[in-house]
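My current task is to audit a protein record that another person submitted. What it holds is a sequence and that sequence's fold in token form. Thanks in advance; the entry in question is below.
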Amino acid sequence: MMGGGMMGGYGGYGGLGLIGGILNLVITVAVIIGVVLLVIWAVRRFSQDGGLGASSVTGTAGSASPREIAQMRYARGEITREQYQDILIDLNA
């Protein structure tokens, strides 16, 4: 009978011993860091876009004119110069 205990003589790391344990730790830490970075990215993305509604473009979207909203979106880089000029032309029409 083998005297390896519960793990069948291979240690606890699938036959790789200490190297397997270190590799397991590195992969686990990488996955945790990846999940944390994904959550941070998602929170920043939704806070910059202002969620789902246009009311979050400004703190007082009800009082901002369409021209002011277009200026703010252009200043933040959400729209290009050509798009901004097209919006101004449409607003003047």
